[in-house]
Amino acid sequence: MIDSIFSTALNSIHLATQKAQTHAKNISKIDSLETTNLVDNIIGLNDAKTQVQASAKIIKVDKEMTDYLLDIIA
Predict the structure, then answer these.
(1) Radius of gyration of the chain (CA)
(2) Tell me, what's the pLDDT at 71?
(3) 3-class SS at 61?
(4) Does residue 2 carry a pLDDT above 60?
(5) Domain residue spans in the chain?
């Protein structure tokens, strides 16, 4: 189960990275008159950042739980 938590969080980071790349690519192609698309893509970048941060916290807690369980066993 613990491995599943780690894998899920890692997959979430991977997906967020892909989203961030897509939004960054879209921003680089936006005409200066397309403010709606710019705002949408900036929000998308921020969402991807938040997703990575949340997933990183999950990985940290997963490690702490694993260390705690290993301490109990030892």
Answers:
(1) 17
(2) 86
(3) helix
(4) no
(5) 2-73
Average pLDDT (26-44) is 86
Three-class DSSP category at 59: helix
Handedness of CA 33, 36, 39, 42 (dihedral sign): negative
- Please give the structure tokens belonging to residue 61: 């807690």
Contact 37, 26 (CB under 8 A): yes
Question: Looking at residues 47-59, what average pLDDT do you find?
Answer: 97
**Using N-to-C axis directions, what is the helix angle for 2-29 and 35-73, rounded to 10°?**
160
- Name the pLDDT band for 9 (thresholds 50, 70, 90): very high
Q: How far is CA 49 from CA 2, 32, 43, in A?
A: 24, 24, 10
CB 33 within 8 A of CB 55: no
Separation of alpha carbons 31 and 43, rounded Å: 17
pTM for the model stands at: 0.82
